[in-house]
Amino acid sequence: MDSKEVTLLKKALARQKMARQQAEKLLEQKSLQLYEEARHLKESNHKLENLLSEKTSELDGVFINIIDPYVVMDLSFNVISMNQSAKNFLGYDHKKDTINLWRMVHKDYMEYTIESFSSLQEVGKLKNYRAKIIVKDDVEKWVEINASLIYNKDKQPIAAQGIVRDITQEMEVTEMLSEQKRQLDIIVNASPLGIVLANTEKIIKVNHAMTDLLGYSFEEFKMMSIDDITATDDVENSNILMQKIYSGEIDDATISKKYVKKNGEVLYLKVSLNSVKNIQGKTGFVLAMLEDITKQKELEIQKEQLLNDLENSNQSLQEYAHIVSHDLKSPLRSISALATWLSDDYKDVLDEPGRENLSLMQEKVASMDKLIHGILEYSTANNSALDDSKVDLNEVINDIGETIFIPDHVKLVIPETLPTIIADRTKVHQVFQNIIGNAVVHIEREVGLVEVLFNDNVDFWQFTISDNGVGIPEEYHKKIFDIFQSIGNNERSTGIGLSIVKKIIDRYQGKVWVDSVVGEGTQFHFTIKKTII
Amino acid sequence: MKGIVFTEFLEMVESEFGLETVDNIIEKADLPSQGIYTSVATYEFNEMVALITQLSAEVDLPPGDLIYAFGLYLFSSLKNAHPEVIQNYKSPIGLLYSIEDHIHVHVQKLYPEAELPTFKILEKTENSISMVYSSSRGLYRLAHGLIEKAFEHFNGKADITYELLKEDGTEVKFDVVQHG
What does pTM read for this prediction? Predict the structure, then answer.
């Protein structure tokens, strides 16, 4: 090796050494850099670890503090984690017992649970799962669960978490309500009355009786309003009434209304309306109970017709009685006048039997006149209007005492001052006169006594006319109040007086009856309903 | 410029032209590094320019041809230094296709400060590829040598033509068609 070559090699070697040193220096720098970076990374790591543990304990806090039971389970329903509330609710602790939620599902809800679980796996979420479960000691509970899947970092589902709500009470209430509703429906549907619940626009609910009444189906009713089933000429009145109920002016009402059936027939229904108020106290619905009164209504109309007819026939009868009595009276008056003239002019010519016959004839004429007068009175007793006013009965009795014939041996007495009542003076006068008139002429004792007594019976006045006369045999006690019935052959009795009394007492909703013992005396009793002007 | 380019260049000069030529060009180039290079460091590109210029004068060959020859040489050196990179590919076109997205990414991991040329792929078929080399260094002949050697490595042959898109050689389009 020559010296030149050696020099070159030495130089090259020197460059290589230098290059090596350069490389070593670079290596050292890199090492330092790496160390610094490692240290920095360690610090970051530490910080991250702290953060992680903070977050974890935060989450733990949340987990414990969730008031509702919270459960995490694997995809085979085994509980992995649960909060205290879940332990209390289910009665198990996942740290002590192996809990499999599938085994707690009530058998009626297994199919539903399978469906729900596959839906959870499909969409990752499950909302409002509701089922019955059996917790510790075989206690049945209703639960509502909202759940979601938990995924690993590869987005594979590994578990499911859920919040459980105990809705046992809620469900019991719901069940109870539905049972009550069912019972109510039975009552409503079994009701013989038609029942309709409606608002201003349409019919909300009807019962079976209602579909039977009008012939529409439930579905048809729901498409209709009250107006649709009301007869056209009743719509306006019906609307006015409804308006009053909806405005709160009235709460209930009863009306009779015409309704149109599906087949066009018209029904008369009696409707009881009641407002159904909301919480604010406003009427939101109207409840109607309907009763078919078509038959009653028809009878009513028939009755009205009959009454009208009766009134008309009464009227004509009365007119007839009036005319007849007038027509009968005038020839009678002529007979009476002729008989008087005959008696006056020929009393000296006639022998005793002739005079007697003439006198008898006059008496018969007088009695016939009375009979006609009685018929006239009887026919008006029922019809002329009652002119009620205050009537002092003491005055009435005094008037009677003065106007009628009272034999000298008989006394008319008012032991206790009589009341002032409200009645038609003329009619009351007639009643007392007819009874007293009868009493005074049927006394055969030496001293006759007729007393007018009274009793205040709250709603009624009771009067008694008591005498010590001949008395009335019991078989006549009822008969005497019928027209043309009189006892014996008394000239003065027409047999009309007491029937007029009965008619008048009937008009005052009273009763008339008699107590009597033959040979001792008679008590006529009658009552008059008290009226107020 | 990465130190490995300098060390490999000097290796090539030494093996081709002898230790004396190496010493001569270092001395004449008057380099800031005094010709002391380690593959892990980075040096001024101007030093490479100076070394090539000196070598061209010393051996009386055009610098372009020398750079091309260096390209052929560098492929083998790189293959020896990082065999695992080449082993990832089954074909030279596959390798060329992945320069930008794979090989240079790995380079950048080891040498974050490295300034690398870009190879923009224009078109690729099973046996052809056309791409644009672009680098402020303008060492497209180096690339040419590397590409040629790559085919040789996979026992293939290719027609490699290039067209200067910029006169200074900072942007050059390569069209490579493999045959055999």
Answer: 0.41
